[in-house]
Structures are given as C-alpha cells and as structure tokens.
C-alpha cells in the first residue's frame, strides 16, 4: 500500500514519546463534500479513536459545470486541512495517510491544489483511484458484514462518486477480508446529482424519480457482478450503506433528537423503512429538512440526492435489509496502517538482532 508521508511535526520514529504511551495513527479523507480526520491508537484487534474531526467543505461545488475547483471551495478545504494538520502535530502521530478522492481526480487543477496543500499545511495528499477507494471502504466496514448471508453489497455514497463493492460471503473464512467479486465506481455523488437536478421550492415525486432513474442507468450497464444476481434475487444478500446521507436517513428513521453515532452505526433498516424515510423527506420543504436534527442546513439540499442513489441501488440489487455504517474510508486506512506496522514488527522479530559483521 502506498502511503503519503507524515505531516511536519508527526513523530514518525517515535522519538519524544514515552515507551508506555500508545502510538497514534491518523487517516485523513478529503472528499468532494467533506474533510474528515480520524486519529486512533491500536487496541486489541482494532483501534480506539482518540480524536475525530469533520467539516463540510464542498470542495466539488460547481466542478461539474466548470471542470475546476473554485477558489472559495479550495479556501474552505484549506481551512479544514490546516486544522487537521495541527491536530496531527499535537497528537504526535507516528503514521499518517492522507487521501483525496473524486473532486481532485476530476478537476483540471486538482494536482495544483494538492501541491498547494503540501506547501501551506505540510500534508501530502495522495489522489487515490476509485478501485482503491472501494477497497478501503470495504476494509472499514468488515465488522458490519453479516456472514450468515451469501453476499453483501457495500455502497459508499460520496459527494462526487458512488463506489459499489460486491463481496462474496458464502464459504468465506470467518475472519479477514472476504473475496471482492466486482466493484464499480459511478461518477455521481450527492453533490453532483443535486447540482444536476436543482430542487426548486418543493421536492416532487417526479423530480426524485428522475434522479433515481439517472443513477440506475449508470449502474445497470455494469455486468461483472451478474454472477451474484441469483443470490440477491433470492434475498440471500444484504446491503451496507456508508455515507452522511444514509446515516441521516437512519437518524430520521430512529427519530433521534440529535445525531448519535453510537445509535446509528451498525443498525439494520428494512427496505420499507428506507422508503418510508425517503418519503418523509420528500414531504418536507428545504427549510423543514434543515430543521431536522440529523440533517441540518449543510445537508438539507443533498440528503434527497443520497436517498435517490440508495433507492436506485435497491431497485437494481434488491435486498430486504440494509446495514447502516457510520464508518468507511478512514477506518479502512487506519486498519491498513496498523496491520502493516504490526507485520513489519513481526518480521523484524523473526530476523532477530543484526550480527556484528552486518553491523
């Protein structure tokens, strides 16, 4: 796995860190809509989060029309990245991986912005491929896979793209990553879809249906997952949905007075419950959606686009149950970083101390 170098001030060799102080690892994800940072220490077979930071920056705002990242969008992202870099320094992170996704992949000036980020913050962002993005999303959701099913479809709805990963669970080992049978990246996310189909004063069933059909047309042309079609038709598969829009739907379904990750992450929703939450949103005007405690003004104009993407997937790949994931890319990065460091330590122990001649 390729890693971005650590930010200035990151304690890459463990100096100035007491021997009994757990090492901190960090994952930073700069997407089309959000900038997210997660800092954690290893704990058992997983990790313990010591700090999390997330800001809606809308880096991809207007990108579909102009082909470029706008100056206001870059300034919003830069402000969040500077905060993230300071948190990395303060926590003396030993390993950091910072990635950028669809907005920077698409934009003519995406690499120029990446270079500017390095100059101004010290963070060296890596623009990853859609395939790597899908792989990391699956890795971050491994604990949510129900291995009593024969297959699962992990749907990562981003701001500028949606990654779909078909995972085969039948006869897969009880632990570790099961076989990834097919993956698809659709260049449609909540920001790009919402900008393509502006809502107007009120949302209508016809307007929502147009978004659903647009997404379906992109996914339906993909045939590499067809060997798993019978499994889905027989309802022996489940979905895992990871995105702010899907977690917002779950919060709405639960009628939470405020968003609570501990109550949302990992819950199961039926297809009917997903449809009911989407129907509830359609009945609200933009101001009413903004007043919903699990949506707020920053997502009010995007959540229905996310609901449309989820519905398109459910119509093409029917599952009676959806597991909601408030996790994904960042968690996948952390798991990969910690596993790699643990593997290096095991190899070093097997080699033993260097001989005098080698020294």
Automatic annotation (TrEMBL):
Q: Which part of the chain is the Ppx/GppA phosphatase N-terminal domain?
A: 39-339
List the GO molecular function terms.
pyrophosphatase activity
Checking Gene3D superfamilies in the record gives: 3.30.420.40, Exopolyphosphatase. Domain 2
* Disordered: annotated segments: 1-20
> InterPro entries attached here?
ATPase_NBD, GppA/Ppx_hydrolase, Ppx_GppA_N
Q: Which Pfam families match?
A: Ppx-GppA (PF02541)
Indicate what this protein is called per its UniProt record: Ppx/GppA family phosphatase
The organism is Phenylobacterium hankyongense
């Amino acid at each position: 796995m390729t890693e971005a170098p650590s930010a200035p001030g990151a304690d890459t060799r463990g100096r100035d860190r007491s021997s009994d102080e757990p090492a901190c690892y960090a994952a930073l994800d700069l997407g089309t809509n959000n900038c997210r940072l997660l800092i954690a220490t290893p704990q058992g077979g997983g990790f313990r989060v010591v700090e999390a930071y997330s800001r809606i920056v809308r880096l991809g705002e207007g990108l579909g029309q102009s082909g470029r990242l706008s100056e206001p969008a870059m300034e919003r992202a830069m402000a969040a990245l500077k905060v993230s870099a300071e948190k990395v320094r303060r926590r003396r992170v030993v390993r950091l991986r910072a990635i950028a996704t669809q907005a920077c992949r698409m934009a003519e000036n995406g690499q120029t912005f990446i270079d500017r980020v390095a100059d101004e913050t010290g963070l060296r962002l890596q623009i990853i491929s859609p395939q790597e993005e899908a792989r990391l999303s699956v890795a971050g959701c491994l604990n949510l896979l129900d291995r009593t099913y024969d297959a699962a479809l992990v749907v990562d709805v981003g701001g500028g793209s949606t990654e779909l990963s078909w995972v085969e669970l039948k006869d897969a080992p009880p632990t570790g990553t099961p076989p990834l049978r097919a993956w698809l990246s659709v260049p449609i996310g909540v920001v790009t879809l919402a900008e393509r189909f502006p809502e107007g004063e009120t949302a209508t069933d016809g307007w929502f249906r147009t978004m659903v059909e647009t997404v379906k047309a992109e996914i339906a042309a993909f045939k590499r997952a067809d060997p798993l079609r019978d499994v889905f038709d027989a309802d022996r598969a489940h979905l895992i949905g990871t995105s702010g829009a899907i977690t917002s739907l779950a919060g709405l379904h639960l009628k939470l007075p405020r968003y609570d990750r501990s109550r949302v992450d990992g819950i199961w929703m039926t297809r009917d419950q997903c449809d009911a939450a989407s129907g509830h949103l359609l009945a609200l005007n933009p101001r009413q959606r903004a007043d919903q405690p699990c949506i707020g003004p920053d997502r009010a104009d995007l959540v229905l686009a996310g609901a449309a993407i989820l519905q398109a997937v459910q119509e093409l790949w029917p599952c009676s149950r959806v597991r909601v994931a408030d996790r994904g890319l960042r968690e996948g990065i952390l798991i990969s970083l910690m596993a790699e460091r643990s593997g290096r330590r095991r190899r070093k122990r097997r080699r033993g101390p260097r001989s005098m001649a080698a020294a």
